[in-house]
Amino acid sequence: MSATFRKTEIILLGILAFIALVLLPALNAWTPPESFFHISNFTINLYGKYLSYAVLAISVDLLWGFTGLLSLGQCLFFSLGGYAFGMYLALKVGKLGQYKQDLPDFMVFLGYKELPAHWEPFRHFWFAASASALVPALVALAFGYLAFRAKIRGVYFSILTQALTYAGCLMFFQNSFMFGGNNGLTDFKFVLGHDIRNAATQRGLYIATGALLFLTYIFCRWLTQSKFGKIQRAVRDSENRVLFSGYAAPNYKLFVFVIAAAIAGLAGALYVPQVGIINPSEMATDKSLEAIVWVAVGGRGTLVGPVVGAFAVNALKSWATRAFPDLWLIILGGMFTLVVLFMPKGLVGLPGQLYSLWQKISRRRTNAPPDGDTSFPEAPSDHQNPNPES
Amino acid sequence: MTVIVLRKHTHWVVFYFCLLAGVLIFEHPLYAQAPTLREALAEVLPSDTTAHDRFFNQLAAAEKFDDTTRNLLILWRNEELMLYTDAAGKAIPVSIDTPDANGKSHLFSVATGQALNDAAGAPVLAEASALTPIDSDATLRKKIQRAMDLADISSANPDTRKLAARKLGTSQRKENLSLLEARLLKESDKSVRKSLAEACALIRLTDFSSPKTQIAAANELAELDCLGATEALRALAANDQMDISVRKAAAKAQKSIRDYKDLVNFFGTIFRGTSLGSILLVAALGLAVTFGLMGIINMAHGEMITVGAYAAYVVENIFRNGLALSPLGIPISIPGMHAGEGLFQWYFAVAIPVSFCAAALAGLIIERLVICHLYQRALESLLATWGISLVLQQLFRVVFGANNVQVNSPSWLMGNFTVSDVTLGYNRLFVIAFAVLIVVGTWLLLSKTRLGLLIRSVTQDRDMAACMGVPTRRVNMLTFAFGSGLAGLAGAFLSQIGNVGPGLGQNFIVDNFMTVVVGGVGSIVGTVISALSIGISDQVLQQILESPVLGKIMVLIAIILFLQWKPSGLFPTRSRSLDS
């Protein structure tokens, strides 16, 4: 462990963890509302949402930035985790629902008399919590096994994951699939016996999400720095060379795919109690692409980038949807296109990019002989390149 | 020789022709029949029930039943016929038109259909309240309806006759049998004859006194493949008070008709599947060009479809009354041509090239601004074009509004015709023909023209083509514009099938990519086959699973499994390169 983390990094991480996990909740809980330092319940809730987005973004980056797998299905896994935990929450509503019955409201509405068998175990918190990681992981395992075995790579993988998400979305939209159909699961009341609308509960959920983010960060940091991480990046840069060196690249990809799905599922599980609803629209391909925007804007191939991106884009979204409701999508789309075109390393890589640009300009000004632009950010490698082996 | 002779005697030919036409016109029911029925109606209207019944009998026996009389009967039923007492104190049955600004209406005589004039020759105007309404009670209304149903089998319109025969058949009332049989002897139209025969057999089926007649009727129904008889046959087969031989015959006939129905449904499904596949095909062909040939993942391809659809919408509105838009509060008004019905029919012929050009232009701009930086970076092209797709969708919303807009089809695309009970819609037939045309056109362009040659060379090896002096930049630009234009064509057609909205293209993007991947990237033949098979299997699965969504999910799963077997599609591009 000590080799993978530098001292300054540990200190920085500690400070950030302190601010996010201790200071902000403390300011929310113990300062009077009129105080300058007070953090409102709304802000805590909003940040809690951003934190779960950040976890999702890390999972996307683990696939895309580190392994070169652009999955458009991360939101499916996020929502599956959300649904697994949402089922637990829906069952804990008890007789407080609209129909005053033990069954969740939508089942009463559809005329069900008793709980379907596959809902039964979700009464237990730990089952639901572990299912929120395991169900996405299993789906990812099944799909990934088929996809990687058939050597589906690059854009084909993206298109296929898109189709998977689309299929999932259609499936959950159906009433007969027994997950609430169009409306999804909502009107939650309790989590672990606490009132879900209570400020203290929301604070607890915020801290839990923050903790998940830090654990995810540390885990991914360790994973990507290990020998496994090296192979992961090698797969990204040139899968064939990895194959010829005797590594079973598909297995590595499958492993990362499953891990990323589990992480996304956990993020979804913590997201649902904070926003109070989970419905199939969360599975739309657009949501996956939005998560990819966060990573691209933040800077892929780094672990800080996705977190920065998730916060930056969502903060911008919160502001812009209020200030220019008509133009928000134009801003998002335009920003994304520009980032892809001109900022391949995202916000995190921007200083380096600007620095090398400045160097280039100053070199031109001093009229020094060009020495093969080593400092210019190299175009991101891409295994779709027609002939990398030749 | 004949031609010369004909030319010499042109005036005689014209004369005879006119004579013939004149005779035909006077034979026409409107001239020959309508006055008598109308006059009879006018006569009995103020009268009592016996007179009414006499009229109804006359109606049922009438040779021809025209629409004018029918409309008058409907007015009578709805209590919209009035009695007008003229200066001489005579009560004249009249119908009235919509009141003018003073609340007064023109009066039209039931007997002649002419507007009533007073002694001076000026049209009579009256308020509806000043006239005596002709009341009808429930019994009379029922009688009128029945008389109309009976008379409809003598209608001048074969479709009305057919419907009337079906209606009388399903009601299975024995007293109508003689009427239907009499009509069957006179009927000349083949399809109406079939309906009449079916109706007769259906009524004979209820002849409980004679099992023999019933069995014969059941057999006849089976022979006629009468789809409307299944319910009656089922009831008869389940009726345990019936003779066992009758029940057996009914069950047999029912089974035979059910088999026929399955066959009809099957062909209907295949037809719908082919037309759905054709829509997919037109849309996917554009993608096959941009994705298959150029390796660019254009997530904005769906928006190119939408551009085409909105272009058709704009053209339609230019042909009508123009269009007023106000994106972000800036008013833009496009003047209209106020074209008449005849000219309006042609708007779609204009809309097709306009849609192509609009989408091609949009594609050209996107290629120049964004995609030209992204060749060799396929994954990034996916992301950048998704950004563009978001921008475009929002632009549509800003310009055309968030709600769907409706595009009216020209009348030659509406309607349908039936071949052995399989309904074929004109718009669906048109899309199939259209798809064939586009596929052939694309194939010709790619394989027979110089541009096609250049496109193929750039596809195979961009760098080598550039070394050989191929202007790769311009070829890329044109290829991308062409692919986008094809999407625009798909949009133009989609506008004729459903409503147009900002998210129209989004519904197709997943299907389109699937089509191209399954077909084999870069293969036109593969795209054709996969589009048709996806379209047809989608429809067939929908039919079997009885749920459109489940059908779609099954298709997606089937595609994922199919790619296990053939990872690079039906017709993979062969190459020695390791990573292709």
Care to describe what's here?
Chain A is built from 14 helices and 4 strands. In chain A, strands 1-4 form a two-stranded antiparallel ribbon. In chain A, strands 2-3 form a two-stranded antiparallel ribbon. Chain A is globular. With 580 residues, chain B is of the alpha+beta class. Chain B has 4 domains: 30 residues; 107 residues, SH3 type barrels (Roll), CATH 2.30.30; 90 residues; 302 residues, no CATH class. Chain B has 24 helices and 9 strands. In chain B, the strands form 3 sheets. Chain B has a 5-stranded antiparallel beta sheet. In chain B, strand 2 and strand 3 form a beta hairpin. The N terminus of chain B is likely disordered. Classes of the chains: A mainly alpha (390), B alpha+beta (580).
Alpha-carbon Rg of chain B, integer: 33 Å
N-to-C CA distance of chain A: 38 Å
Mean model confidence by pLDDT of chain B:
78
- Give the helix tally of chain B: 24
Largest sheet of chain B: 5 strands, antiparallel
Approximate helicity band of chain A: 55-70%
Q: Tell me roughly what share of residues is in helical segments of chain B.
A: 55-70%
Q: Which geometry of chain A do the CA atoms define?
A: globular
User: Greatest interface and its residue counts?
Assistant: A-B, 53 and 48 residues
Structural class of chain A: mainly alpha
Q: List unreliable stretches of 5+ residues of chain A.
A: 372-390
Number of contiguous helices of chain A: 14
Roughly what fraction of the amino acids of chain A lie in strands? under 5%
Q: Order of strands side by side in the largest beta sheet of chain B?
A: 4-3-2-1-5
Strand order of the largest sheet of chain A: 1-4
Uncertain segments of chain B: 1-6, 23-35
Query: Radius of gyration of chain A, rounded?
Result: 23 Å
What sort of overall outline of chain B do the alpha carbons produce when their principal axes are compared? flat
Give me the count of strands of chain B: 9
In angstroms, what separates the terminal alpha carbons of chain B? 70 Å
Total of domains of chain A: 1
